[in-house]
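Journal club side-thread
Mid-discussion, someone asked how the predicted structure for our own chain would compare to the paper's figures. Pasting it here so we can look after the session.
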Amino acid sequence: MRALDKVLAAIGEGNYSAAGDGYSCRCPAHDDNSPSLTITPKHGKVLLHCHAGCTFEQIVSALGLQESDTFDEESAVIPPSKKQKKRHATCDDAIAAVRWSVEQDGKEVADVIPYAYVDGNSRPFGCSVRFNFADGFKTFRQVHVDGDAWLTSAGDNLWPIFKLNEVSRKNLVYLHEGEKACLAGWKIGLPSTCCKGGCKAPQKTDWQPLANRDVVILPDNDEAGEKFTATMVGILQDLGCTVKVVRLGGRPTDGGDLADIVEGYDRTQAELQSLVVTLATNAKVEPQKPKAEPGLLLQKFSDIQEREINWLWKNRIIIGGVTIITGPVGNTKSLLTIDLATRVSLGAPHPDGSGTCPQGEVLILGHEDDHEAVQKPRLVAAGADCDKIYYVHGKVQNLAEDTAEDAERLQLEHDIKLIKKALQQNPNIKLLVFDPLPEFIGGDHNSSAEVRSALMPLTKVAQEFDIAVIAICHQNKKQGLSAVQTIAGSGGFSQVARTILAVLNDPEDDDKTGTRRRVMVVAKSNNGGQNEAQAYRLKSTGNDRVRIEWLPEIFDIDAEELIKRSRQQDDGRRNTFKRDAATDDLERIIAAGALESKEIDHRMREAGHSGYQIRQARSELGLVKVARERNTDPWKYELPAGHTGTFSVDEWQG
């Protein structure tokens, strides 16, 4: 049986719709108000990606499936077991496991390029694997040999240089930042090498085989390339190398290298080789750098100038750092950022009376809510100065000509310089909003190292431009965790954040009015006081628009205790109220007569129920199929014989 058939059967007929190369539906792992789960069949397996942040394991469990059910029975690809060490018989098996992991984040892999590394005896050492995505981005992962098996990691040992044995016999070696450029060098006859990981891995590579050689560095045309060059000049000179640096003309400005020149110029290989060799011959030898002397850099505190902490909102939102707002899916986090953006645009007072918000401009980076149908009406309802708030469609190649349709998704790992450029051009910007933050990270959200690598440059930008950064992160559903630990993804998110605000339902509010009170509590603060909580409700402004209404209650409460009490109340209420409400609504709908499955689902979704709740209600009422006149007729469902409903047809229709 195909994995896709198993997954769709678990979701239920009529609960999903075609979308792109697969399907979409409401995620069963959380209370989903709109289809946020994509189901994509790929290479004998099914990819499940929740855009609200639910993990693959949570989705599979909520569907009542096993991890193996997402693979076709005839597929040779087996998901790596989390109960066993990730050991694989061959390099190809290890790469397949890494690809499986990469694709669980919803990435569509267009191409896989392995680069094999060997030791000095030509024995396999590892493989650096380039994954090219359909959206034009790429990422690298490593696998390495461990005894008689392959492991899906880079390992702890220093890696050899690429093409080690080929360049070991050469007196002149050309050094590149990546394998693609290195292979382009060999293509035109230049003895070339590089290291796995490029600019991120010079210190994790054994450069000893290049000792006392002549080395020409051909850097990539970007900031990372220059950083790599500066690092490598020092490393190679310490090994007794004579070092030259040649910055080739004709490279694209965004990281272009020799591979781009070889692919883009209509010249013979011999002509290109002659050109590079001539430039290298005429280049000056890099002056010897003073030998670095390691040690501890000391400064007396008497010489350190004191500096006060700068706040956008005291003890809650810091200027010069990242503040994360977390909480259950659908618990007004995005609406809270709208309120904060409004206050910045107006220079309005803080809700707790602690002062006035610095007035300035705001950039909103977020694609979960429609900027025309949701974000703009909410800003208007909040009274924002919309001339001071900008929506970021994404990045474009030509600002003068490209439109919103040309915009591509922003990735912090690659595009932080574009954010800096926007801040330089708009010096009045005081706040950046990311909603949600994981959407702007291209790496593995479950890898602390990759998350920190993406977010640390953002923190530096916040410090450099003296701005506040607010980021939405959804919660996972694991029990017994602190407010900080419940943030979906790796611990890197909470480690980088200077402040974490948790948004929860107030367990003291029984919600009799229909406008349940929420509580925003400081769950983590590196610079201010914790346990400070502020209450608010949602207030309708007409035309189906709502805004936040802050309440005067400010109280001291422990975030962990609030989470525990809120979850206890929510679990009890959710398990009874939502189940009963869904059953009641379905009974009303079906009381008027038999309906097709799609029509039932349509009406139930209009009533605000998820696919999981609809299936529960169907089971609770025991709906039965109505006999069809023709086999081609769609199935209809009705209440079972003898059912005594609570609601009459007249009540439903009236």
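Post-session note: The CA atoms of residues 14 and 598 lie 5 Å apart.
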